[in-house]
């Protein structure tokens, strides 16, 4: 018996120049799969309605007009990572949470380190706001985009001064 062909999803990308660097927005037909800081912007992109909408919302965010995002998300990770990333989306604009707070919210209070690892593997910067996670003592801790960008984003949101 023949196996059915698996239909591959289309992949799109678009670049957005933010006040803290160039972002690449990547999406498939279901939603945004990545928002990441890149060092340079290639000459070509393959835009879609999802990447365009995401870039519009990022522009609104950086101008202070948007405090939450409503683009479809399609990040791929382990079940645990996806639970952590979902919890990150619940951290309100202008607020922060600790890794322990996130672990408690997902009913796994001993998973603080695992939460930190999942947070560090978040593929959708800013929209899934891993920058809002800080150390239990209130210090800024690691951020894939760099601590200067994390500080910029938290200052933009008024979470720190």
Automatic annotation (TrEMBL):
Molecular function via GO: methylated-DNA-[protein]-cysteine S-methyltransferase activity
Reactions it catalyzes: a 6-O-methyl-2'-deoxyguanosine in DNA + L-cysteinyl-[protein] = S-methyl-L-cysteinyl-[protein] + a 2'-deoxyguanosine in DNA; a 4-O-methyl-thymidine in DNA + L-cysteinyl-[protein] = a thymidine in DNA + S-methyl-L-cysteinyl-[protein]
Domain Methylated-DNA-[protein]-cysteine S-methyltransferase DNA binding: 79-159
Keywords linked to the UniProt accession: Cytoplasm, DNA damage, DNA repair, Methyltransferase, Transferase
Catalytic residue list: 130 (nucleophile)
Predominant place of localization: cytoplasm
Domain of life: Bacteria
Compartment(s) where it occurs, according to its Swiss-Prot or TrEMBL record: Cytoplasm
Its EC number(s): 2.1.1.63
InterPro entries for the chain: MethylDNA_cys_MeTrfase_AS, MethylDNA_cys_MeTrfase_DNA-bd, MethylDNA_cys_MeTrfase_DNAb, MethylG_MeTrfase_N, MGMT, MGMT_N_sf, WH-like_DNA-bd_sf
Organism: Alteromonas aestuariivivens
CDD domains noted in UniProt: ATase
A GO biological process held by the record: DNA alkylation repair
Extra facts: This enzyme catalyzes only one turnover and therefore is not strictly catalytic. According to one definition, an enzyme is a biocatalyst that acts repeatedly and over many reaction cycles.
Main EC class the enzyme belongs to: transferase
HAMAP family: OGT
This protein's name: Methylated-DNA--protein-cysteine methyltransferase
Residues covered by the Methylguanine DNA methyltransferase ribonuclease-like domain: 11-74
